């Protein structure tokens, strides 16, 4: 069994990669920072030395690098059973104050990367008539908020992509799930001093993903929203 997780050198992506490796999946991971990526790969191998870990430095905001990553995946793994489109950048700020070009940059990383990688890997899933695609959306995919700006726009767009993909792939027996976590202890929240236990753990998202994956063949979780027990942080 093989899985692909983008943006997986830390946070939610790394937690998912470790969970899937623990369950016996070979994993392909990527991130921009090569040093952090290699450390993540070592941590994943420590979880389960029996699995293969393909770690490739990739800027998911660049189409040509996404395509090259897909080719390396196909050359390494005969099938892709799970694809987790997790790569993303979080830049808060109001629309009229954000720098010119930020929307285009965030769209490339947060939305286009998922579009291009999914397109490259879908042929094999269709041939095998199996696979599960998880798109890492957000509570920001559903609710507008002050200073959401370009980031919020991209998350609404990713949810739309995921919904459309779900409809297209029903007849091919390929599952599509939109995962939308709220505040989670990741690098995006560095510098924010939340009260203890006020935020979710990356492992919470990984465990939910595994639960959705292990349902019967005739069941699929289409969308799920996760929030801290006390709700969003305002």
UniProtKB/TrEMBL annotation:
<dbReference type="Pfam" id="PF00106">
    <property type="entry name" value="adh_short"/>
</dbReference>
<keyword id="KW-0560">Oxidoreductase</keyword>
<protein>
    <submittedName>
        <fullName>SDR family oxidoreductase</fullName>
    </submittedName>
</protein>
<dbReference type="GO" id="GO:0016020">
    <property type="term" value="C:membrane"/>
</dbReference>
<dbReference type="InterPro" id="IPR020904">
    <property type="entry name" value="Sc_DH/Rdtase_CS"/>
</dbReference>
<dbReference type="InterPro" id="IPR002347">
    <property type="entry name" value="SDR_fam"/>
</dbReference>
<dbReference type="GO" id="GO:0016491">
    <property type="term" value="F:oxidoreductase activity"/>
</dbReference>
<dbReference type="InterPro" id="IPR036291">
    <property type="entry name" value="NAD(P)-bd_dom_sf"/>
</dbReference>
<comment type="similarity">
    <text>Belongs to the short-chain dehydrogenases/reductases (SDR) family.</text>
</comment>
